[in-house]
Amino acid sequence: MLQVVWFKRDLRLEDHAALCAAAIRDRILPLVIVEPDYWRQPDVSARQWNFWRGCIADLGEAIAAKGGQLCVRVGDAVETLAAIRAVHGPFVLRAHEETGNAWTFERDKAVRRWCKAEGIAFEESRQFGVWRRRRVNRDRWAQGWDRMMAMPAQPAPPLLMWERGESNPLPDAAALGLADDGLQVAPIWGRAEALATLHSFLHERGEHYTSEMSSPVSGEAACSRLSWHLAYGSLSIREAYQAAQARYRELPLSEKAWRQSLRSFIARLHWHCHFIQKLESEPEAEYRPMARLYEGLRPRSADAVKLQAWGEGRTGYPFIDAAMRYLNATGWINFRMRAMLMSFASYDLWLPWQESGRALARKFIDYEPGIHWPQCQMQAGETGINTIRIYSPVKQGYDQDPQGNFIRRWVPELASVPDAYLHEPWKLDAETRAQLYPDYPDRIVDHAAAAKAAKDAIYALRRKPEARAEAKAVVQKHGSRKRTADRKRAGAKADQLKLAF
């Protein structure tokens, strides 16, 4: 029977369980569905589609090189599958499991209902070390992840029998109603780039990953930069894990920096799936705090003026604004800066994490909902279990950009400010400020006062008996069960935004 392989965020032929299962059975119709309704959601953007589109085109070339043709359809998933059935007859639908946003969650449920009603088998394969079903035994989760990552990565099937289907052209962003979002530096997509990036990190760039990944200056090169390749599946996480393990084993004991960096990287691959498992186990975490006691802690709707100033990098805090402008221009920023930006929105500006989270999601080319949403509410202090981390925007600036080079590059309005005042320009007198940077805003809030108010509000809730009881339930459902020394060492970093490896 015809095998329809539905490619979603797994745009490769290698280590593709659904494709391998189909290849040993019958003819394959490789399918990508471009869903306009998805691209109308508030957490997606043109920069994401353009990268995704490039990955789809790259997949099409890989299939063409093996004698097939990628079938691209634009429209609703259920209607697309029904149209394929009308032309090609009964089939088996195969895909990887996907932990996406609420829209894709409902889409997948609709597809399953249609398949059941039509007598179509819908077989899903595991892609990450993430288990379906809400009830997952966290005591055994880590061992399951280890076993899956240790299984051999599957090469592309050598023999593939293709079915050809009617295909639509890949639309551009404008055709999907996506406006230009200010991206200035477009990343390179596709399988070859993913492999080259992995190799350069493991053999050239990654030696000082552990010590250099926190600064936006050094992190640009020291981080692996694999996050968007993993998010769209041009590289599997198992391939990255096994390549890192192989590199680690070949390193001599004298290469201490390299070995420590690779241990850190491997631990973060584990955390990648750990966080996706949270959203898989509790899809409501996209819009509800894991600890329900925190519902209503912040205003239901964000202060529009503050949200816009934060999103444009015009808060009056130079390091915050430099980081946001860098993200706006490149679609990526390192994990420490992601945590800092979310912390500032959540505590200094007291914005609901759902709205600031959507704004950040649109900016991230590597948006991975399963990581993004648990991390957003963690940074906002609404999980009930994690340490409240309120980042000082001034201290972070001095720590991560001591010479101010990053600030001067991304906030050119401050180019004439003396070094001694660059991180705190408000300490200059009003006349000097007006002369040196007339177009840069004053501080939107006072950090010390805002941080105190935020702490007071959150700890007032945490002291309640019901908060302690709820925290125990959250730990039982979502808490990490670290099993190795490496994971224990990495645990202190678990409250950072791990998507930006």
Automatic annotation (TrEMBL):
Organism: Sphingorhabdus buctiana
Keyword tags: Chromophore, FAD, Flavoprotein
InterPro entries: Crypto/Photolyase_FAD-like_sf, Crypto/Photolyase_N_sf, Cryptochr/Photolyase_FAD-bd, Cryptochrome/DNA_photolyase_1, DNA_photolyase_N, Rossmann-like_a/b/a_fold
Highest taxon, organism lineage: Bacteria
Flavoprotein in keyword set: yes
Cofactor field: FAD; (6R)-5,10-methylene-5,6,7,8-tetrahydrofolate
Domain Photolyase/cryptochrome alpha/beta positions: 1-130
Positions of region (Disordered): 473-501
PANTHER family: CRYPTOCHROME, CRYPTOCHROME CIRCADIAN CLOCK 5 ISOFORM X1
Family of this protein: Belongs to the DNA photolyase family.
Protein name as catalogued: FAD-binding domain-containing protein
Pfam family membership, one: DNA_photolyase
UniProt-listed Gene3D superfamilies: 1.25.40.80, DNA Cyclobutane Dipyrimidine Photolyase, subunit A, domain 3, HUPs
